Amino acid sequence: MNFNSFNQERIVLVATVLVVLFAAIALPGFLNISNVISIVRSISVLGILALGMAIVIIGRGIDLSMVAIMAMSVAWYLQLLHAGTDETAAMLLVLAAVIFIGAVNGFLVAYADVPPIFVTLATGLFVFGFIRSQVIPSDAVTVPAGHWLETVGALRFAGIPVDVFVFLALAFATFIFLRFTKWGRYVYYAGDNPAAARNIGIPVRPMLVLRYVLSALLSFIAGMLTAASLLSIQTRVINSNLLYDVILVTVIGGIGLSGGKGGVRNVLIGAALIGILLNVMTIANISLLYQNLIKSTILLAAIILDGWLNPRDEQTAQQGDI
């Protein structure tokens, strides 16, 4: 284990404990069962998105199209159902589109050498603009009455929403992929030193495409869970700060922006701290303006800390990549 990363994890863990202790003492209702369930539910969706972002960042990239894919793919899926499309056909069609967008992101980054920050920003805006203008008539699309998403949204095990178990299952699957599979180890090799990885025969470019496809699929799952809990999907979520929260979770958890470092444990730690912090600020009735100021300050501090602990190499600087 990297000593610096270990220190960062411990700092975040201590900060999480301090925030919980402060909230438990100062904020009546923080430890209510309903509020705790609300926290773990919000952490689950945020965490699933952060898992996808982590896979991309460990491989030395970034995906700014995640929230657009999350909202617009599910909105299109629900719209197809309202239009009378068969359930299986609608699901397969949307899944194919999600995989296609992820593959386009990966292809442009891997084979056209376009910086990922520009590619994913452009595809995210295109997905939102195309689906909103050509496919769905309103900003929000509801879940059809009697659909299985209603059952999923109400499903509980020991009083815990099913979202939490889905997040934990995906976190475990991601952990197995990154640590115990050949393809997962390739992600670290490519993120640590792409040129060296290519020289020893690792298929760096196909692996890069795979990472963006996985990120897109995890975004779709997060969107389905959001629709299940709210019984609708709001496409204007792409104008919110959700994407920055996902980056914040990933960076503050200890995943280095220079690639090749971090794992699922960092996502879990970061999601816990940010999920609890967002809940505390909401209960404390802190205005959205000051919430954004606090989060931006934390994100800036986390990026500076990451730059200090995980300095960028010369190759990354020359590419203008992150």
UniProtKB/TrEMBL annotation:
Domain of life: Bacteria
Compartmental location: Cell membrane
InterPro entries the UniProt entry points to: ABC_transp_permease
Keyword check for Cell membrane: yes
Pfam families: BPD_transp_2
Keywords per UniProt: Cell inner membrane, Cell membrane, Membrane, Transmembrane, Transmembrane helix, Transport
A GO molecular-function annotation: transmembrane transporter activity
Major subcellular site: membrane
Name of the protein in its database record: ABC transporter permease
Bilayer topology: Multi-pass membrane protein
PANTHER family reported for this sequence: ABC TRANSPORTER PERMEASE PROTEIN YPHD-RELATED, ABC TRANSPORTER PERMEASE PROTEIN YPHD-RELATED-RELATED
Organism: Profundibacter amoris
